[in-house]
């Protein structure tokens, strides 16, 4: 398993803003990124990548989606359109005079694709383990949730309280919910269906990452997105040691390095 060099940020459920470092060579900054966490998660999942982009002149905002960072009961009463609207509002607040990048983890990756399609001005898209489909158990649970299973079984405990993460320190630190609100899981299924139909409308350069050991979302989900988008440039990376929440897992530094390389290519950064 890969050795992790850079420590994780301090665990937090809160939204964040990371300022870019001004690049002396150009006297300017290179862009801004909207970072969107996953289902039952928090902005902590995408903070390491935001921190890694700052030295390269990219400022970042990590949005806290409705129903998250509080209680599973609150999440149970939100919809995917509320999650989307919060992300769109954060996107619209980013500076419009520089390239804007959208980053999403798991369910947040689906929201990132919706932002890219609905706004049409994303300079680049970075997806971490996009939740376009589930394994069989998750598929059955999400469909049952849409049929009203949540009325008799509102919540389902996760196998690991900290989430599907290989790195034990990251798993222990991750402030995610220990349970899944099944009513909201049905909303993720509705979001999957919406995004799948719109993949041919995704036209921004795209970089997709997936953990080969992911127990939550099959790696074929990332391959499907990479194959179906209309983006002129697509990178697809499968990380051999990571589980699902790859933004804070054992390959997080490799993700950061590959993302910087990708952005340099598609945004024309000087070597």
Could you characterize what this model shows?
This protein is an alpha/beta fold and 271 residues long. The chain is 35% helix and 16% strand. The chain is built from nine helices and nine strands. The strands form two sheets. Strands 1-3-2-4-5-8-9 form a seven-stranded mixed beta sheet, with helices on both faces. Strands 6-7 form a two-stranded antiparallel ribbon. The two termini are 30 Å apart.
Fold blueprint:
Blueprint: E1 16-18, E2 31-36, H1 47-53, E3 58-63, H2 72-75, H3 80-92, E4 100-105, H4 107-119, E5 124-128, H5 136-146, E6 155-157, H6 168-173, E7 179-181, H7 182-198, E8 206-211, H8 220-228, E9 234-239, H9 252-267
Parallel strand pairs: 2-3, 2-4, 4-5, 5-8, 8-9
Antiparallel strand pairs: 1-3, 6-7
Helix pairs in contact: 1-9, 3-4, 4-7, 5-7
Counting DSSP E segments of at least 2 residues, the number of strands comes to 9
Average pLDDT confidence is 94
Uncertain spans: none
Q: Give the SSE string.
A: EEHEHHEHEHEHEHEHEH
The secondary-structure class comes to alpha/beta
Rg value: 17 Å
The share of residues in helices is 25-40%
Query: Biggest sheet, in brief?
Result: 7 strands, mixed
Beta-strand content estimate: 15-25%
First-last Cα distance = 30 Å
